[in-house]
Amino acid sequence: MTDLRPERDSSGAPYDADDAYGDAGAFEAAVDDLADPLTDPLPGQHPSPWFRSGGAEPERTPAARTAAEPQEQEWYDPEGYARDWYGQQQQPQQQPPPAQGQQPPPQTPEPTYEQLYGAYAPEQPVSEQPAPTYEPVSDDETVGLRTDDTRRIAEPEPDRPTEGRAARRKAAKKGGTRPAESRPGAPLSRVEARRAERARRPSPGAVISRGLGEVFITVGVLMLLFVTYQLWWTNIRAHQQANGAAHDLQESWAKGKGKPGSFEPGQGFALLHIPRLDVVVPVAEGIDKQQVLDRGMVGHYNEGATKTAMPEAKQGNFAVAGHRNTHGEPFRYINRLEPGDPIVVETQDKYFVYKMASILPQTSPGNTGVIGPVPPGSGFTKPGRYITLTTCTPEFTSKYRMIVWGKMVEERPRDKGKPSALVN
To answer: Does 26 reside within a domain?
Structure first.
C-alpha cells in the first residue's frame, strides 16, 4: 500500500509543502478556493442577501483576489425593513390616493424619545451599606468539642461581655447562668453538653411519680375488672347454676326420688316463688356461701342456734337467706313487698302459701332473734307457722340485715293443682 504522507519521495529528497505548491500562501489559497455545496454561494453572488456589491466582479484566481484591494461595499435593506424576526414579511399599508379637489390628510409626526419615555434623568448613585462584620467569640476550650445547642431559647437577649473560664466557673458555683449559655445559637462546650444531658434526664421525683401513676392505673384497671366480674358475670353464672338446680329438682320429683326428711348441706329440696317480684329460686339446705348462696340459691338456716323448722312442721319459723346483690341476687327487691303479697314454698308433695305480714328495714347481723319461733318485732304474739326472709342491706354492702316476715295461710297438696297465687 502506498503511504498517504511519505516523508521522502522516490528520489530520496524530503517532502516539503512549499515545494509542492510553489509560492508561500498558495496552499491556503487552494484550500479557500474549494467550494462547499451547502454554504458557499453561487459564482458572482454574496452569501448574505443584505449585501450589494458595486458591480459585477470578474472571476479571479484566489491569489489575485487575495492581492486585490477590497472595494467599497454597500449594505441595504432590499425589503424595506419589512422582514420581521421570524422571516415573515409585513406588507406596508397603502393609503388610498385622495380624490380630486381634496387635500391629502396631514401627516402625523413621529413622537420623539422624550414624548415616549420622558426626559432623561441620570441614575442616582446607590449608597453602599458596609457588610456587617462578625467577630469570633474567644474561648479557652477546644472548639472541636463544641456542638450546636438546639435546646436554647431563640429569644434576643442583651449582649454580655465575654468572660474567661474562671468567671464562668464562679458563676456556675453560685448557681447563675454562664455567659456563653445566654447567647442564642452559641456552641456548647464539653462541660455544657454534659450539663444539658443531665438536665434532660428525668429527676428521681419524676421517675417516682411515673411509677406511682402506672401503679394507680394498673390498680384502677384491676378494680374495674373486679367490679365487672361481681356485678355482671357472677349474676350470669349464678342464674345458670340456679336454673340447672331447679331443673334437676323437678326431674327428681317427677321420678319420685325425693323423700321428705333431712337433707345434706347444699342439697336442694324446695322451690321458693315470689310472684310479685317474678322470682323462682331453689331452696337448699344450709347457708354456706360457696355451696349455696353464691350459686344463686336460697339457703335454709339449719345449724346450731340458727336452726329453724321446715315448712311441713306444725309449728315453727321457716327462715331462709339469700343475696341481695351479685350472685343471682334473688332477694334484691324484697323491700318492695307489701302486706298480703303471697310467698309460696313448693316441695315434692305440697304447696305452702304464706302472706307477707311485716318488714324490718335494718338490724344487726348478730340479731338471731328475728328467726326465732316467735320473732320479736314481727307482730306475731304466739307460736305459729311462719316464714322469714333475710338479706343484706344497704345494697352492695353487708353491714346490716333486712328482714321480711310472713304467715302461712294455705297448705295445698300437689295432686290438687297449683294454688291461686301461682295461677293468677
So the answer is: no
